[in-house]
Amino acid sequence: MNLIKKTALTCFMAISLIASSTLAFAEETVNPSAATINETIAHVESAIVEINKSDFAASYLHLKSAREIGAQITGNDEIVKKANIIVIQGQIASKKGEVKEATDLLNEALKLYKTL
């Protein structure tokens, strides 16, 4: 009888361990999209600051990173696609040295990313 209790307890412990590790794994897969959105927003905000300083090389690097990370965002595909296109347009404007236009475009992209 003691052997049956020990076996039942061991099986119960194994099942609860498997269930808790499965829940932890499922939780990790939900959060990367939010992390990528926040990282993209941070890069776009940094790019705006650099553009306002007329440091176009640094802004280019931030926008390049924002584009790479923005491509990994899952969710509302229409908004993500539109925001990524606006970031590309802002990158082109900053390459041309058009501070006002680039800032306006990137602010518009920020609004779209923040709706996600």
Give the end-to-end Cα distance, rounded to a whole number of Å.
Answer: 57 Å
Given the C-alpha coordinates, what overall shape results? Answer: rod-shaped
Number of helices: 5
Give the C-alpha Rg: 23 Å
What's the total number of strands? 0
Ranges where pLDDT stays below 50 over 5 or more residues in a row are: 26-30
Structural class: mainly alpha
Percentage of residues assigned to helices: over 70%
Main sheet characteristics: none
Walk me through the structure.
The chain is mainly alpha-helical and 116 residues long. It is built from five helices and no strands. It has helices at residues 2-30, 32-52, 56-70, 77-95, 99-115. The protein is rod-shaped and about 80 Å long. The N and C termini lie far apart (57 Å).
Can you give keywords for this protein?
mainly alpha, 87% helix
Give a summary of the structure in a few sentences:
This protein has helices at 2-30, 32-52, 56-70, 77-95, 99-115. The protein is mostly helical and 116 residues long. The protein starts with a helix and ends with a helix.
Topology overview:
Layout: H1 2-30, H2 32-52, H3 56-70, H4 77-95, H5 99-115
Helix pairs in contact: 2-3, 2-5, 3-4, 4-5
